[in-house]
Each structure stands twice: as C-alpha cells, then as structure tokens.
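Q: Structure tokens for this one, please.
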Amino acid sequence: MENACPPIVLDTKVLIAGACRHAGSLAYRVLMAVLDGQIQLMLTEGIVAEYADVLGRPPVRKLTGLTVKQNADLILDLISLSHQTQLHFSWRPNLLDEADNKFIEAAIAATAIIVTYNVRDFSHLDLVKHGWDVMTPLEFTTLYDLEN
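A: Here is the predicted structure, written as tokens:
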C-alpha cells in the first residue's frame, strides 16, 4: 500500500459483497485487506450484531455460499482483528435509515472512514466531519492503493 490506511467502519452491504468472494470485486479486496491486517476495522456491539443477523439470513447465506459455521468464523475473525470502538455519546444524525446511525457513531468515535456503497444514505447529516469520512469501495481502494 502506498498510503497508510486509516481505520474503517465497514457497511454491512460491503461485507456481504466481500463475503461472496468474487476475487476481482472491490468489496472482496477491502475485506481481504482487513483479514490480512492491512486495514484496522472498527467495530461496535451493534455492528457485530447486524453482521451476524444479516449473514445468518437464508437468502444471504445462499448468496455468499457460506455455511452457518463459516459465517460464525468470519465474524470471529473480524472481531479478533478489529478494534472494539467505545461509544461515549449516542449521536443521532437522523439518517434516512435509522439502522445506519450505528456506523456514523463508530466512525465518529474512531475517527474512521465508513466504506459503503450507499454514500447518499450518509449525506443527510447535520454533523460536521472531523476526521471521519464516507467513501465507496472504489474511492477507498483507489485512494489507498489496495493491491488486487
């Protein structure tokens, strides 16, 4: 990597796309960089709970091809490699999808970049960005020169 990667908060849809294991996909590249220890992943209990819930859904398991055990192993790997972010304030930025607030809270607490396909979902904020940002997998992998 040419530039040192800042910590990230990984949106669930990017995790799912990465878990589909299409080697050329940008989501897969980001997920592998996390699992290889190149990128520090920031997690909260709420984010882990969402990952487990969504990965465990039958349509998502069919899409990713992962078994229940493989899903559990992936989540445990992410937890073991991540930094558990402590939330000291409950920011309520009034996003269109209330469930996305947990990602903003983690990004603020960790001064991290949210990697998401839905940048627009995070654009309805009254919060000023101080050290945290929102990027697509393409923007992130391009800016931080993640290898194929």
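A few notes: The longest strand covers residues 8-10. Strands lie at 8-10, 42-43, 83-84, 113-115, 133-135.
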